[in-house]
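Reply to thread "Modeling small-molecule complexes from scratch"

Following up on the discussion above, here's a worked example others can learn from. I took a protein sequence and the SMILES for flavin-adenine dinucleotide and predicted the complex. Inputs first:
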Amino acid sequence: MQPAEAVPNLYHPNLMRIAGFADETPDVRTLKLQFADAGEARAFTGWRPGQFGQFTVFGAGESVFALANKPWHPNGGAEPPTIECTFRAIGKVTNALRALSTGQTVGFRGPYGNHFPLDDWRGKHLVYIGGGIGMAALRSAMLETLDRKAEFGEVLILNGARTVADMVYKEEMPSWQAVQGVRVVRCVDPGGEGEGWDGEVGLLPNVFEKLALDPADRIVVACGPPVMLHYLFLSLGKLGYRPEQVVTTLENKMKCGIGHCGRCYVGPFSVCRDGPVVTWAELNELPKDY
Ligand SMILES: Cc1cc2nc3c(=O)[nH]c(=O)nc-3n(C[C@H](O)[C@H](O)[C@H](O)COP(=O)(O)OP(=O)(O)OC[C@H]3O[C@@H](n4cnc5c(N)ncnc54)[C@H](O)[C@@H]3O)c2cc1C
């Protein structure tokens, strides 16, 4: 009798060692992860900006985070693959993850989901709008855009937070601004500005409206809390943007990440399999429970 063929386990995580971390805000941390096993590192084929992964804290569970650093490609050089994720400690898994430190091990499976179509945006002006931790889901595409800046027009990065203390990626924003043709605008909600704050004060959609950019040949890529997106879409409509020019990424609660369990469906749309990246035009076709 033939031995039964081993069925690959799609839920089996790679072991990743925490190579370092940076605290962005009191409750948001960016982790740098490297494969613990050299064979798994060699087999890794990289990811596209906008994709996500399932990260395991052993004994606590799995959480989904955006892959937040510039995409790593197998032909990209001698560096071993490093995956970064930026997460807010809000519950069981994320608090357990925050309790780990450099040298400890977590699980990773992915990359999953579709990606931002950067190649289709060549020659266009790009606007990245991140509200709070939403910036994490845009960072990979944004860093790739900065790397390939010559292929795009003007790039505007609008990083908004409730307060100065809540703003993510404070340390690296000067390096974004240093790229020619890139403008970085920081904004905090009214009352969130501290002494010496020299950025904008206002709700993110209002700050965007005040910038009065011409919508022609422009793509807006936005991620943030649903209420921010609601008002941002109203502003964009008022300014004359077409729904096809506006792209976002959904963060519905999900479980398997691979289209099997059905937890993340919005009508017929499986966020983990068909998304998470969607245009505003596509969102308009879905029931309003995203
Ligand atoms: C595609 C995708 C990408 C994501 N990327 C990031 C990221 O880059 N960084 C990041 O910090 N988070 C991200 N999230 C959200 C993240 O997955 C959850 O915050 C995390 O799983 C919470 O796990 P927990 O066990 O700590 O929280 P739990 O203990 O399960 O819940 C704590 C609280 O958070 C709420 N909550 C849990 N998940 C979500 C969610 N998806 N949306 C809204 N509320 C939620 C719960 O209702 C509860 O009130 C992403 C989610 C998706 C689907």
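What I'd highlight from this example: Residues 52, 63-66, 85-88, 90-94, 133, 136-137, 251-254, 276 surround flavin-adenine dinucleotide (CB under 6 Å). The chain has eight helices and 15 strands. Questions welcome below.
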